[in-house]
């Protein structure tokens, strides 16, 4: 999950890193609920949230409060993954 102040972009991947679903959701109640429902369609799930101690904190706390397992992904690791995926470390626009 890549959280921002007003939206969160998620990808649901399997253990072989195949993208099963993706979406962009607002971080208000109306966006959070469908995001959570999409994630809960997958039994063995762990939410990997970029920046749990920063910009992703509000979403991470909501997920934990709803009984979800959340792990923090440092922004540097996310940037490194983007290098391998796109050839550069910048987020797509």
List the helices and strands and how they pair.
Layout: E1 2-3, E2 7-13, E3 19-26, H1 29-39, E4 47-50, H2 57-65, E5 70-73, H3 75-86
Parallel strand pairs: 4-5
Antiparallel strand pairs: 1-2, 2-3
Describe the 3D structure:
The protein has one domain (2-86). The chain has 3 helices and 5 strands. It has helices spanning 29-39, 57-65, 75-86, and strands at 2-3, 7-13, 19-26, 47-50, 70-73. The chain is globular, with a radius of gyration of 13 Å.
Structural class: alpha+beta
Spell the H/E element sequence: EEEHEHEH
Low-confidence parts: 79-84
Q: Fraction of residues in helices?
A: 25-40%
Q: Radius of gyration from the CA trace?
A: 13 Å
**How far apart lie the N and C ends?**
16 Å
Instruction: Tell me, rounded to a whole number, the average pLDDT.
Output: 84
Q: Number of domains in the coordinates?
A: 1
Strand ordering within the main sheet:
1-2-3
DSSP summary: helix tally: 3
**Strand proportion:** 25-35%
Find the count of extended strands (DSSP E, 2+ residues).
5
Largest sheet: 3 strands, antiparallel
Shape: globular
């Amino acid at each position: 999950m890549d959280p921002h102040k007003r939206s969160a972009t998620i990808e649901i991947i399997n253990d072989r890193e195949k993208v099963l679903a993706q979406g962009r959701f607002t971080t208000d109640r109306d966006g959070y609920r469908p995001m959570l429902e999409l994630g809960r369609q997958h039994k063995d799930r762990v939410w990997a949230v970029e920046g749990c101690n920063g910009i992703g904190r509000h979403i991470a706390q909501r997920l934990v409060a709803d009984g979800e397992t959340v792990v923090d992904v440092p922004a540097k690791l996310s940037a490194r993954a983007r290098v391998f995926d796109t050839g550069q470390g910048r987020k797509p626009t």
